[in-house]
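agent> fetching stored inputs for the tryptophanyl-5'AMP docking request
agent> found them:
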Amino acid sequence: MGKQRVLSGVQPTGNLHLGNYLGAIRNWVEGQSQYDNFFCVVDLHAITVPHNRATLAADTYTVAALYLACGIDLDHSTIFVQSHIPAHSELTWLLNCLTPINWLEDMIQFKEKAVKQGENVSTGLLDYPVLMAADILLYDADRVPVGEDQKQHLELTRDIAARFNHLFGQKDEEILKIPEPLIRTEGARIMSLTDGTRKMSKSDPSELSRINLLDSPDAIAKKVKRCKTDSVRGLSFDDPDRPECHNLLGLYALLAGKTKAEVAAECADMGWGQFKPLLAETAIERLKPIQERYKAVMDDRGYLESVLRSGREKAEAVANRTLSRVKDALGYSKPL
Ligand code: TYM
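agent> prediction call returned; pasting tokens
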């Protein structure tokens, strides 16, 4: 039996942050040799909210380069750009026509983002989970490694695939493979540096709320210095009244590669004045090799383009096969 297939992606909306890295990309890298992996820069998703046309292409290249810099290995993985493969948009349309609209209206992220957009909510924002389902289903993915915030979208993807198979499959035929989410417990939900009850997010207006993978050492030190803490002496995990403390200790554990128990013991008697420089230093050291590799990749634009070109070729062949299967099942005539 061949390896199981993995598909995942990140939106090219500005810089990636530690939530994206620890919740998703780190897991892609650690698991990649076990699977046949497809990692996509999901630039069609990036225009579901108002976007900057002047930076979209550059941001797309940045994210692809960061995949490589974080350790995605082309011997195991294919990297490509979503908008380079028309099958993503086409399957979205086909799936739209069998997805009940109330399934989409129930999505938590839609409700949250719609509130932020006020009156300018686009149809694309509502439809975004169907595009995500198309991304996954096109590649017959067995596993989808994501952070906790994408869990509901994965459940929707499974529901859409099951509905399609039920309506258009002959007997028990699985035309669309039903994927499993792959969500690790540690790092699945990294919280904001300025509010331990809110997710670290690219759309938070405050830069101080997140550490970006490409932040300079000075910027990291400043953000950690200014992050929200409390006035309790000693540091511990799991105190519901100390969400910031729990989040910062968790970040330190993940960045230092230590277990929760090791960090709990190491930090039990520390004050913030001792812990913050330790966290900042650990983050700087962990990101340094990623930043160095990122710079090397970006300095060789021809190489990056060749990675994306061969990624597109490989991904497109898989995607087009699934799309044909879906169109056959729906009863479409063959193109002449
Ligand atoms: P996006 O671009 O918002 O986030 C990319 C990945 O990072 C994870 N993540 C986090 N994990 C832990 N803590 C956080 N604070 C945090 N913030 C983000 C996300 O869970 C995600 O895994 N719709 C998706 C992109 C997408 C996709 C796909 C993913 C499009 N098609 C197909 C998987 C498969 C999104 O907007 O992720």
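agent> quick read of the result: The mean pLDDT is 96.
agent> awaiting further instructions
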